[in-house]
Design a protein that fits this description.
The chain is of the alpha/beta class. Helix content is 34%, strand content 23%. Bound molecules: iron/sulfur cluster (2 copies). Residues 310, 315-321, 334, 350-351, 353, 355-356 line the site of one iron/sulfur cluster.
């Protein structure tokens, strides 16, 4: 399959509906995208039931603009790990319900029927379900640009992880518990599903830095970033945040194994953001690659990690963390069993109250 790797970047200072629509039309034009399939699935990042202004989820104005621009039938869907088959509260809080009604977009859950796919990652077979909605409709991938405590960055490639229905997403963390093995899985997973992607459009108007992807700090960036190849879109996102691509584990693994295609940056060519606040995982992952420390740190295993810590005072006892945990490591009275816990941080991501913090373990604090 030929991959068209060029990436287009346009300044978009806010979420004013008309401006967003104009910029998206221009991005399609820059990338030569004149025709659209008769039906498309819009796949936002709907990680959690959070308000658009919290910069956790893809802004609804982008979906509304696509409803005006694209002539065909549009669907929009995702499957947050703790939402189950009833994501109604998510659609409402994220602002998708309102725009779907006015823009004629049909909301669908990716939690329903699925097809099992199997890939090989580091000589280990991994089977997972892929939503049949994704397999039946070309996908317009709509990620939110954020930091992430396992992958360092989440943008176009990581957003495809949502093609897997809810709880199996968490179970794959148990199969690939270390950040390096999970990032290697992400590379192969992306390659297995990338033919489903019609186009990628990253919401980088307001982004998240620090403790992403759920509880970091919102920061104004003011760009929309688009391309047909999620890999090169992510390379551009990483560079614009000031990262070397070797600092983003899934990009480094992809580069070493398959290479990065040549591409051009069209439209605006902004300077990288200054003083971008990386997630805590970023320094740990860099330290793990230090040849002088790697042996010792691999012996320490999961004691050298970012770990979840539950703050009871903030907890509203919704039990989402218990439901999402792939290791059944959280008891009914909300205590985390450290022996069972693999530090996947799925609980931290789904907690709607910010009652679970992602912090360095004592040993990680000592080394980093
Ligand atoms: S307690 Fe949290 S971090 Fe630990 S395994 Fe469960 S979901 Fe993952
Ligand atoms: S820690 Fe968060 S996710 Fe878990 S029960 Fe409390 S509020 Fe819900």
């Amino acid at each position: 399959m030929k991959i068209y790797a060029d990436v287009a970047v346009l300044a978009c200072p806010g979420y004013q509906a008309h401006d967003v629509e104009v910029k998206i039309r221009k991005l399609f034009e820059l990338l030569g995208q004149k025709e659209f399939p008769p039906q498309l699935l819009l796949k936002p990042n709907m990680l959690s039931a959070r308000l658009p202004e919290e910069a956790v989820t893809t802004h609804p104005v982008i979906l509304a603009a696509l409803g005006k621009i694209i002539p065909g039938r549009l669907y929009a869907g995702d499957c947050p790990p703790s939402a189950g088959k009833n994501p109604g509260k998510y659609w409402e809080t994220c602002g998708y319900r309102d725009i779907a009604d006015s823009a004629g977009i049909k909301l669908v859950t990716l939690e329903g029927e699925s097809t099992i796919r199997t890939i090989t990652v580091s000589r280990k077979n991994a089977s997972f379900p892929v939503s049949n909605v994704v397999l039946n409709l070309p996908v317009l991938n709509l990620p939110k640009l954020k930091t992430h405590n396992v992958t360092v960055l989440t943008a176009a490639m990581k957003n495809t992880y949502g093609f897997i229905p809810g709880y199996p997403k968490s179970l794959l963390h148990a199969k690939f518990p270390e950040p390096e093995s999970f990032n290697a899985f992400l590379v192969e997973f992306y390659r297995a599903v990338r033919d489903r992607i019609f186009f990628n459009l990253v919401d980088a108007v307001e982004i998240m830095e620090g403790n992403g992807p759920a509880h970091g700090i919102k920061r104004q960036f003011g760009y929309l970033i688009a391309g047909k190849d999620a890999l090169t879109v992510d390379v551009v996102c990483a560079r614009l945040l000031g990262f070397d691509i070797n600092d983003i584990p899934f990009l480094r693994i992809y580069k070493e194994k398959y290479g990065i295609p040549d591409f051009r940056i069209l439209g605006d060519n902004p300077e990288p953001l200054e003083n971008f606040n990386s997630p805590p995982a970023s320094l740990l992952i860099k330290t793990l690659r230090n040849p002088l420390l790697a042996g010792l740190l691999s012996i320490l295993g999961k004691r050298f990690a970012i770990i979840p810590v539950l703050e009871e005072a903030k907890c509203k006892k919704c039990m989402a963390c218990i439901r999402v945990c792939p290791q059944k490591a959280i008891s009914d009275d909300l205590k985390i069993n450290r022996k069972k816990c693999i530090n996947c941080l799925c609980c931290y991501e789904v907690c709607p109250e910010g009652a679970i913090k992602a912090v360095k373990s004592k040993i990680a604090k000592f080394f980093v």
